[in-house]
Structure formats: structure tokens, C-alpha cells
Amino acid sequence: MEETQELKRELLHCKQEVRNLRGVKEAQQQRLFAQEECMLQLKQEQLRASMTQDQLTSLNAELQRKLDERSRLLSECKAGLQRELECKDNMLQEMMSRHGDQAPPHLTATPLPSGAEELQLVRSALRSLRGVFREQDPQHHTLDTLEQGITSLTDRLTHTHQGKGKSSGCNRATHNQHDSWPPSKMAHSYSSPLLSSCGSTKVLYFTDHSHTPCMIHINKRLGKVTLRDVKTAVDRDDNYRFHFKALDPEFGTVKEEVFEDEALVPGWEGKIVAWVEEDNGEERIKGPSC
């Protein structure tokens, strides 16, 4: 009997151990399933990350290709504009040389009307080129230099023509200019020693696109120059605003805007100092402005 009881106790103990082992087995299986699920999620995330990386690599390559294409187009555009500027410069030099060689003796006191028209075409082309560039583009300095070169060449040509007829005197030279120049070109003359002795005004003006001033001469005495004369001389239309350096009794040195074409512009220390700005449609207030 005692042996039977002992065997029963051992059997119960074995059953208890079997139940414990089954519980441990189930717990291990659940943990294994959880780890497998976590591993599957990690693999999915790795796959998505790999696909995203491939997309970014492809996008980066596409952007780099577009950047290279834009850089190439920009270089070609700059090269084309540079060639066009050089072509215009060569045309101007040929035009000035042709006028210097072919001017008839009875017209040596002034440039030929056809030359003035061609010079106007060149200035119009420069103005069109200026509109192509951005406001801060350094090519504006090149255009300013070219425009100053045009002014210098015109000065030399005018001085050469008028030097040949200098013996006729200042009054006769002025009379010939009024007879041979069209009215629209009379105010668009540049300085020469002969003209200065007859009475001309130096105009120093600044533009929106350059901090370097340009200088021209108007064939009128200071105090008789109108806004229309300045517009004609600087080759700007009504889409621009003109401010002039002036002395105000109350405020001192001011920038005064002139509106009417027939209004006289103020002078400063024997010359005219002007700022030519593009009209953006802002409201204008008459009177001096600081």
C-alpha cells in the first residue's frame, strides 16, 4: 500500500511538471511569434527606406541634370549677348569711322542727319538690351561703359567736324547747327570746346541700374534748360521720373522732382545733377523731397 501511495504521489508530481512545461512552451511560442512579427515589420520598414532612398537618388540626378542644362543655357545666353554687344560696338565704330571719312566739306560743322539716326538706333538697341538683364546683373556696368564710349566717340567726332569750321566763329557755327539739325536732335548734342564757349550745360545723371553716373552736355545755358531737353539728351521717355539736386531756402540741399516738360530744371554749382528712375506707378507729391 505504501508503495502504491508513493507511486501516486510521483505521478501527481509528474503531471504538475508536465503542466508547468506546457505553460512555459506556450509562453515561448507567443514570444517567438511576437519576435517574428517585429522582424517582419523591420523588414517592411527597411524596404520602404530603400525605396525612398532610390527615389531621392533619382530625384537628385534629375535636379542635377536640370541644373546643368540651365547652366549651359545661361552660358549660351551670356555668350550670345556678349557677341551682340561686341557686334553693336563694332557697328558703332564702323559708323563713326565712315562718317569721319565721308563727311562732305560743306557739312563738316555738324554730324550728318543719317549718322544721328543710326546713333539713335544704337542707343535704342542698348536700351532694349538693358531690359533683358536683371536689375542687379553686372552686365549693366558693361552697358554703361559702352554708352559712355558712344558719348566719347560722339564728342571726338563733333570736335573734329567743328574744328574744321572753327574759323567761321561761334555765332556762325550755332546758326549752321540750327539750319542743318532736325528740331528733335538740337538738344541731343554733346560737349565740345566750341559749343562750351557758346554756352552749354553739363548734366551728370544717375540711373536705377548703375551707381556710376553718366555725363552729357546740353547746348543751352544753365537756367534755360527744360525737362524736355533733359529727356531728349538722356534718351528717356515719359515712363521715367526725373529728380534734380537743388538748394531750398528752408531745407537746404534737396532732390526736387520736375513734372512738366517745359519747366526749367534747377542747377547745382554750375551744372545739373539728376536721378533718372523708372516710374512704378507710385503717387507723386509735388515739391522738394529729401
From TrEMBL:
Mostly located where?
other
**UniProt entry tagged with the keyword Coiled coil:** yes
| Listed Pfam families | DIX
- Return the InterPro entries for the record: DIX (IPR001158), DIX_dom_sf (IPR038207), Dsh/Dvl-rel (IPR015506), Ubiquitin-like_domsf (IPR029071)
Gene Ontology cellular component annotations, sorted alphabetically: cytosol; focal adhesion
Q: Which SUPFAM superfamilies match?
A: Ubiquitin-like (SSF54236)
Where it sits in the cell: the answer is: Cell junction, Focal adhesion; Cytoplasm
Which residue stretches belong to region Disordered?
158-186
- Domain named DIX is located at 198-280
GO annotation, biological process:
canonical Wnt signaling pathway
Q: Which domain of life is it from?
A: Eukaryota
Keywords, comma-separated and alphabetical: Cell junction, Coiled coil, Cytoplasm, Developmental protein, Wnt signaling pathway
Q: Which residues form a coiled coil?
A: 42-98
Q: Which family does it belong to?
A: Belongs to the DIXDC1 family.
Protein name as annotated? DIX domain-containing protein
Q: What is the lineage of its organism?
A: Eukaryota, Metazoa, Chordata, Craniata, Vertebrata
